[in-house]
Amino acid sequence: MDESRLRLAASVFANTHDGIVITDATGCILDINRAYAKISGYSSEEVIGKMPDFLKSNVHPIEFYEEIWRSLKKSGVWRGEISNRRKNGKLCPELLSISAVLDAFGEVTHYVAIYTDITDLKESQQKLEHLAYHDALTGLPNQGTSRGPYSPSAGFS
Question: 3-117 architecture in CATH?
Answer without folding.
Answer: 2-Layer Sandwich (3.30)
